[in-house]
Amino acid sequence: SQTIHQWPATLVQPVGSPLSLECTVEGTSNPNLYWYRQAAGRGLQLLFYSVGIGQISSEVPQNLSASRPQDRQFILSSKKLLLSDSGFYLCAWSVSVAQGESPLHFGNGTRLTVT
Amino acid sequence: TQLLEQSPQFLSIQEGENLTVYCNSSSVFSSLQWYRQEPGEGPVLLVTVVTGGEVKKLKRLTFQFGDARKDSSLHITAAQPGDTGLYLCAGYDRGSTLGRLYFGRGTQLTVWP
Prior knowledge:
The complex is a heterodimer.
Chain A: E1 3-7, E2 10-13, E3 19-26, E4 32-38, E5 44-52, E6 55-58, E7 64-70, E8 73-78, E9 87-94, E10 105-106, E11 110-114
Parallel strand pairs in A: 2-11
Antiparallel strand pairs in A: 1-3, 3-8, 4-5, 4-9, 5-6, 7-8, 9-10, 9-11
Chain B: E1 5-7, E2 10-14, E3 19-24, E4 31-37, E5 44-49, E6 55-58, E7 61-65, E8 71-76, E9 85-92, E10 101-103, E11 107-112
Parallel strand pairs in B: 2-11
Antiparallel strand pairs in B: 1-3, 3-8, 4-5, 4-9, 6-7, 7-8, 9-10, 9-11
């Protein structure tokens, strides 16, 4: 069966510090991978998605970046965090079809607080 | 811009009551997914509806896709405390440039024992 691991579960970082969140998927090959952010009282905002190694599409201009160094590894990074980067970050995967055509399978998220 | 409006935003009811939450848009979607999210966890898929007018049942949950594929509803019969969570709808637009999934802001349901 497929599983998705996301870590850390919680993170408190000062403004201006770097960020690295990691997500790995097991039990499937060539998945579509996604990073979403969920702010309190709001829905899910798509940040990045990837259809393959080294292929990253950005949905929203921001000071975040994503990388996919391996088929089942997706990393969300920032060089300098802003207060507005606080939120709940979710990694997800889907089978390799058009984005949205297949259901998303989410990790348990990372609660990021920038102080 | 695709926009999915969910209502109500918050719903607090007693165990045993029935409820309906709505997901509306002015846009047509190829399909619509419903997810439930519990605190500190990621959303989990409940159902996907594809055909206009389609009705799917999942135990006490009934999902309906509007005839015009612009809206959907989720009805829960005899709600239980275990139904508590954030219910999210997400519409898939196959015709958009990225074939992307659009999420509503969710309905936070609390069922009191």
